[in-house]
Each structure stands twice: as C-alpha cells, then as structure tokens.
C-alpha cells in the first residue's frame, strides 16, 4: 500500500469519526449506530476505500 492510499484511509477514518461524534444520540440511533460503534464504523468505511 502506498503512502497516498494510507493517508487517504487515515483521513477518511478521522473525518468519519468527527462527523459521527458531532451527531446526537437520537440521530445516531436513527442510523442504527451507538456511540461505541463509531470507531468500528469509521474503520469499515476507511478500509472500503
């Protein structure tokens, strides 16, 4: 894996965590995500890139 791809994945992970953390508990619940799931969801999103 090259450095650009690694950075892109890291950046996507960070952005996803930031955006999900900005949501309220009700909004997360509407998405079917709990606060404890945020890092897992972000990792899955980043690894799909």
Automatic annotation (TrEMBL):
Q: Tell me which residues make up the YjiS-like domain.
A: 4-39
Pfam families to which the protein is assigned, alphabetical:
YjiS-like
Task: List the InterPro entries hit by this protein, alphabetically.
Answer: YjiS-like
Q: What is this protein called?
A: Uncharacterized conserved protein YjiS, DUF1127 family
The taxonomic lineage of its organism, from the top, reads:
Bacteria, Pseudomonadati, Pseudomonadota, Alphaproteobacteria, Hyphomicrobiales
């Amino acid at each position: 894996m090259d450095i650009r791809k690694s950075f892109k994945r890291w950046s996507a992970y960070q952005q996803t965590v930031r955006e999900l953390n900005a949501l309220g508990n009700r909004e997360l619940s509407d998405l079917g995500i709990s606060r404890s799931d945020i890092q897992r969801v972000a990792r899955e999103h980043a690894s799909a890139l």
